[in-house]
Amino acid sequence: MVRHLGLKAYGKVNLGLDVLRRREDGYHEVRMVMQTVGIYDRVDLLYREEPGITVETNLFYLPVNENNLVYKAAALLINEFGIRGGVHIRLKKMIPVAAGMAGGSSDAAAVLFGVNKMFGLGLTGRQLQERGLKIGADVPYCVMRGTALSEGVGEILTPLPPVPQCRVLIAKPGINVSTKSVYENLHVEKLGPECHPDIDGLVEAVRQKDMVRVAACMGNTLEAVTIPAHPEIAAIKEMMMETGALNALMSGSGPTVFGLYTDSRTAEAAYRRLRYGDGSRIVRQVFLTDFFNRREAND
Ligand code: ATP
Question: Domain boundary residue among 130, 159, 188?
Fold first, then answer.
């Protein structure tokens, strides 16, 4: 019995996000190129003799009951395997919340990984991914991590080779965006072809390790909904382009924007502009990080 596990739950950005159509069940069919980045939440799992799940977190506004995705993930495995002991989950958030970086999904994936290990359940990565889908569409990918093509509603995953390393500048304006409302306001049938990024081209560029082409193929259908409602997203993208980014894009349903830089000094200057310069008026959180490419380890 492992009594304590300290895990890292990494965030992601979407190098590409195409929404194909709304299915009859209300879910949207997507094609996304996902990439893990080096910003993470800390998830500590502590074994308890008495049954039950307790959660504590550094963010007062997050739920600590069954509405927290970490609780859902622990409950799913504890119930399925009739585990008699309990767990205490300590969650230290660093990934911006409701930002399009799959923070909650990644926390859930870390808990699935951790409970599997703590109680010796013997589930494979694939089996954890299947269970993760019941918690959220991005959870299977967060179990896998690294660079991947995600299709269907997020359950069809194809691992891709790592994208060449570059600096990733991540900036979140002081607004929160609900993924649900973005999809509700998306009328995919009305969008022109310019709103659908070339995901096949992007995948090919990733396979070729051609960073310039990766940057050129980046695109996100959901920008068509989120940017008109929040023009500060466009302003951040513009600033990143002015400061020498290869390209800049909104991640997921937003409002987080990320920019890719091949040169470290250029990236650091851009970071300073957003953190302390004229960008600081619209940017609430800013990080300079890298791509993260270790799969299914959660350490
Ligand atoms: P995605 O990129 O998958 O759309 P997101 O970054 O937009 O995710 P999250 O930060 O994962 O959004 O969470 C959105 C909502 O989920 C929050 O408003 C919060 O109340 C709820 N939530 C539940 N559990 C968590 C958690 N562990 N971390 C963050 N939010 C959580």
Answer: 159
For the packed helices 69-80 and 103-118, what is the interaxial angle rounded to 10 degrees?
30
What's the gap in Å between 20 CA and the centre of ligand 1? 24
Checking if the pLDDT of 252 tops 70, the result is: yes
Same domain (yes/no): 149, 19: yes
Rounded distance between C-alpha atoms, residue 250 and residue 40, angstroms: 19
The chain-wide mean pLDDT, for the chain, equals 96
The CATH number given to whatever domain includes residue 134 is: 3.30.230.10
Please count the structural domains in the chain.
2
Q: What are phi and psi of 284, to 5 degrees?
A: -90, -45
pLDDT greater than 70 at residue 297: no
For ligand 1, atom 15, which residue shows the shortest CA distance? Answer: 98
**Region 147-155 average pLDDT:** 96
Residue 249: Cβ within 10 Å count: 25
Residue 255, phi then psi, degrees to nearest 5: -90, 5
How far apart CA 14 and CA 199 sit, in angstroms, is 11
- The rounded Å distance from CA 264 to ligand 1 centre is 30
> For the chain, give me the number of helices (H) and strands (E)?
10, 11
Ligand 1 atom 27: residue of nearest CA: 104
Q: What is the pTM of this model?
A: 0.96
Structural domain that includes position 192? 167-287
Please identify every residue annotated as catalytic.
12, 138
Residue 78 is predicted with a pLDDT of: 97
pLDDT band (50, 70, 90) for residue 288: very high
**Do 152 and 29 belong to one domain?**
yes
Instruction: Find out whether 76 and 134 touch, Cβ atoms under 8 Å.
Output: yes
3-class DSSP assignment, residue 32:
strand
Dist. CA 242 → ligand 1 center (Å): 31
List ligand 1's pocket residues with C-beta within 6 A. Answer: 62-63, 67-70, 91, 97-105, 107, 138, 179, 252-253
